[in-house]
């Protein structure tokens, strides 16, 4: 039976609660093939696996848009437009000089207007009569009566006369509204706020932007076998997921608020501590990034603490059915609603997607590094895009021809790291086992290979890799 749940923090109040939904996690048969950090399980031990396309769509649809907020331009970088950006003014707001030179009226030669140059920032320059010219700076407002701007390098002055080739009417004048008119749509909602977007918004008259904030993500890295510095020794291995997950979350538009390094915590139930004979690995290691619940002693308490100040919780490891795989028992104890319980994909079969009782989504990454990457691409990326309203890169439509055939899995989708040596070409790089990162480290994208009895060839779908 699900245990009671601790109240969510005030920051979560806008999410609603899902605690009244019946838990949908079914106990798994003991003795199924290796769990986290030890390889993906065989489909026979994972009878509820969701097909890859359905899992990808489910993750996107599971996300509720984060509440919008208005921020000063200087604070909006990295967030996502919650509303379309429309021009509050014509751009440019008046006719301006595109080059340094002379504003001229009619054909030359011209008599220089006394009184000095027209500079940027002058509000209302004097009208220019036919046959006259006046020096003008780039960006300055064009005097009424100007027919063109003669570039400085094309003209010469002798006393009060300007000579040079007659410019075409309108030459080197940026007319009012050349870029856009007031009310024109500039960018759609869902656009990431980059430095260029900030510049465009400022030019269009904005002081504040209405944005959806970067999702806050809490990460729990599980496993007694993990080392966080030095060489593998004594049957223990280096944690490869912890160092890479934060930068990838940032590249996906999220804000990793904590990456906690935990041992194989007992699943527990809310309000309990480790039982007799159970041990809890230290929550911080050398060089570890920490945050979260402080004195929590069970995975349930760690999950509650993580969800209290995050928009998404990730766990790494522990999603299998082995003796120390405690993510499923912890979710059952919480009464969480599991919507994706394993995915028919290689690597990454035992990934999962759940909703915690306070409405916060949770993604369980497998413990093998490339399997975790598969889960990031399959579940985390579309979920983050759903939270912010961002479209997925390329909308999943990018295609390329494989430069050589690649073996497929008979029942599951395969995700294979590839280089993109030329437009429209995808070169498999190898090293695609669930525990390997060598291939993904040199890859430009990941090819999605549907299941089948013969090697894949021809055009395949590509998934973009998040880049910092």
TrEMBL record:
Pfam families: MoCF_biosynth (PF00994), MoeA_C (PF03454), MoeA_N (PF03453). The keyword Transmembrane helix does not apply. Residues 1-10, 269-287 have a biased composition (Low complexity). Residues 37-56 have a biased composition (Basic and acidic residues). It is an enzyme of class 2 (transferase). Its cofactor is Mg(2+). It comes from the Bacteria. Residues 218-386 form the MoaB/Mog domain. InterPro entries: MoaB/Mog-like_dom_sf, MoaB/Mog_dom, MoeA-like, MoeA_C_domain_IV, MoeA_C_domain_IV_sf, MoeA_linker/N, MoeA_linker/N_sf. Signal peptide: none annotated. Belongs to the MoeA family. One of its GO terms (biological process) is Mo-molybdopterin cofactor biosynthetic process. Keywords: Magnesium, Metal-binding, Molybdenum, Molybdenum cofactor biosynthesis, Transferase. Pathway: Cofactor biosynthesis; molybdopterin biosynthesis. This is Molybdopterin molybdenumtransferase. It catalyses: adenylyl-molybdopterin + molybdate = Mo-molybdopterin + AMP + H(+). Transmembrane segments: none annotated. It comes from Streptomyces calidiresistens. Residues 1-64, 269-294 are annotated as: Disordered.
């Amino acid at each position: 039976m699900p245990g009671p749940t601790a109240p969510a923090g005030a920051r979560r109040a806008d999410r609603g609660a899902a605690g009244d939904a019946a838990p949908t996690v079914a106990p798994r048969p003991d003795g199924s093939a290796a769990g986290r950090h030890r390889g993906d399980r065989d489909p026979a031990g994972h009878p509820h696996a969701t097909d890859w396309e359905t899992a990808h769509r489910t993750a996107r649809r599971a996300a509720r848009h984060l509440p919008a907020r208005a921020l000063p331009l200087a604070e909006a970088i990295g967030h996502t437009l919650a509303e379309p950006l429309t021009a509050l003014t014509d751009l440019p707001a008046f006719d301006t000089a595109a080059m340094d030179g002379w504003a001229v009226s009619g054909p030359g030669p011209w008599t220089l207007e006394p009184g000095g140059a027209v500079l940027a920032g002058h509000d209302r320059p004097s009208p220019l009569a036919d046959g006259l010219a006046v020096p003008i700076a780039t960006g300055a407002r064009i005097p009424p009566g100007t027919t063109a701007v003669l570039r400085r390098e094309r003209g010469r002055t002798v006393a009060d006369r300007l000579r040079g080739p007659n410019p075409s009417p309108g030459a080197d004048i940026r007319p009012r509204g050349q870029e856009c008119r007031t009310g024109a749509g500039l960018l759609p909602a869902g656009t990431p706020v980059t430095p260029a977007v900030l510049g465009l918004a400022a030019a269009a008259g904005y002081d504040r932007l209405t944005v959806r904030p970067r999702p806050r993500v809490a990460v729990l890295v599980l496993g007694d076998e993990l080392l966080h510095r030095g060489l593998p020794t004594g049957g223990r291995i280096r944690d490869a997921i912890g160092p890479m997950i934060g930068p990838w979350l940032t590249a996906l538009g999220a804000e990793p608020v904590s990456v906690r390094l935990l041992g194989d915590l007992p699943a527990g139930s809310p309000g309990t501590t480790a039982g007799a004979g159970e041990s809890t690995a230290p929550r911080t290691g050398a060089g570890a990034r920490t945050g979260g619940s402080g004195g929590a002693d069970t995975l349930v308490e760690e999950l509650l603490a993580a969800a209290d100040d995050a928009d998404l919780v990730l766990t790494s490891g522990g999603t299998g059915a082995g003796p120390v795989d405690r993510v499923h028992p912890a979710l059952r104890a919480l009464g969480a609603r599991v919507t994706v319980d394993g995915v028919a994909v290689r690597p990454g079969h035992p990934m999962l997607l759940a909703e915690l009782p306070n409405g916060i989504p949770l993604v369980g990454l497998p413990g093998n590094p490339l399997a975790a990457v598969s889960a990031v691409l399959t579940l985390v990326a579309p979920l983050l895009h759903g939270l912010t309203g961002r479209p997925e890169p390329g909308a999943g439509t990018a295609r390329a021809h494989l430069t050589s055939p690649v073996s497929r899995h008979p029942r599951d989708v395969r995700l294979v790291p590839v280089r993109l040596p030329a437009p429209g070409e995808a070169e498999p790089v190898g090293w695609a086992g669930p525990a390997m990162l060598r291939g993904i480290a040199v890859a430009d994208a990941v090819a999605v290979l549907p299941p089948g009895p013969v090697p894949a060839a021809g055009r395949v779908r590509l998934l973009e890799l998040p880049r910092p």
